[in-house]
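[Discussion] Sanity-checking designs against the backbone

I'm trying to build intuition for which residues belong where. Below is a structure token string of 348 positions. I'd appreciate it if someone posts a full sequence so I can compare it with mine line by line.
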């Protein structure tokens, strides 16, 4: 589940934090990267576990309604189609998820307000109404939760707040990210004014972080829900933390070579920045992105050079300034050509 895009994103975030600390230890950065990737997979399992928790909580709500003093006929004989949803049962009975959940420090059952808000929104939706009207089948049980997850659960603001409050690695990046260029770095007090000036001067952009780590995890959850089948065990559908051992090694090697070769990478990049560019104004994020690409040029022969350039240009569109993409693309292209001419890159 933790693919190359997620790994690049987590290495970028970890390296950025590392370079902005007074005390810079390689071992600390490597440990932090490992934690961030572990928490990323934890989020995948935790979001899957939310579905049976919602059905269980809904069953409890229906029981309270049924036994209240002035219950309506509908409340006395509630429709338990959702309570008996077979997809939710399949997740609930998955031994690996259950084993992980029992040892995890967080529990959905403790988040009463969040669960109630999600249930209220689900119960009041056209999706729920249509679900009750459709044929009772596993396929419809699955379709219902896929649609609910994508349209109600994943974008819910209260879920975003909860995830962000529980882990720095679960900072939900669903909302727009604001990026602006300033002559000087503004203080927090002047930030609103600086953004307003940047907007008026067309030096501002706002982008949905569809490539953000949390959004990628949500996408994997949705894909997993779509793959759940009545004839397959949940264990066959559940994604492993890594597709193969190579990806885990890739994460460790990318981080280590990035930090060990930092000074050499910076010197190489600076050699290919035009004289008209003020190096002091070079965005920190751009510098880290380009260093990561150079690590891939030099240490990952299986990754074509153009693939590395494209990947880091795309990341620059998300995590850096509005002009970063063309700048990063130009510098990396020049660096790649220079390294190839020197015989230091022996790949396409």
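Best answer:
Here's mine. Compare freely.
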């Amino acid at each position: 589940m933790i693919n190359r895009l997620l790994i690049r994103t987590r290495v970028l975030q970890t390296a950025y934090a590392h370079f902005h600390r007074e005390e810079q230890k390689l071992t600390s950065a490597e440990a932090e990267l490992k934690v961030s990737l572990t928490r990323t997979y934890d989020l995948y399992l935790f979001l899957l576990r939310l579905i049976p928790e919602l059905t269980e909580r809904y069953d409890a709500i229906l029981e309270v309604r049924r036994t209240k003093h002035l219950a309506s006929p509908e409340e006395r004989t509630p429709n338990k189609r959702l309570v008996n949803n077979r997809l939710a049962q399949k997740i609930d009975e998955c031994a690996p998820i259950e084993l992980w959940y029992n040892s995890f420090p967080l529990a959905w059952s403790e988040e009463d307000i969040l669960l109630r808000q999600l249930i209220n929104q689900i119960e009041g939706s056209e999706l729920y109404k249509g679900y009750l009207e459709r044929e009772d089948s596993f396929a419809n049980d699955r379709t219902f939760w896929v649609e609910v997850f994508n349209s109600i659960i994943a974008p819910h603001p209260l879920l975003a707040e909860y995830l962000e409050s529980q882990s720095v690695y679960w900072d939900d990046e669903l909302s727009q990210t604001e990026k602006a260029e300033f002559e000087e770095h503004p203080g927090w007090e002047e930030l609103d004014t600086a953004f307003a000036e940047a907007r008026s001067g067309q030096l501002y952009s706002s982008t949905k972080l569809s490539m953000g780590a949390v959004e990628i995890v949500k996408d994997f959850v949705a894909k997993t829900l779509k793959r759940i089948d009545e004839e397959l065990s949940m264990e066959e559908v559940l994604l492993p933390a890594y597709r193969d051992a190579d990806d885990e090694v890739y994460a460790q090697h990318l981080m280590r070579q990035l930090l060990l070769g930092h000074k050499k990478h910076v010197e190489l990049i600076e050699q290919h920045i035009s004289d008209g560019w003020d190096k002091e104004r070079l965005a920190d994020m751009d510098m880290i992105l380009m260093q990561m690409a150079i690590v891939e040029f030099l240490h990952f022969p299986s990754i074509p050079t153009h693939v590395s350039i494209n990947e880091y240009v795309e990341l620059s569109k998300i995590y850096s300034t509005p002009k970063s993409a063309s700048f990063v693309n130009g510098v990396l292209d020049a660096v790649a050509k220079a390294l190839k001419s020197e015989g230091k890159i022996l790949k396409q």
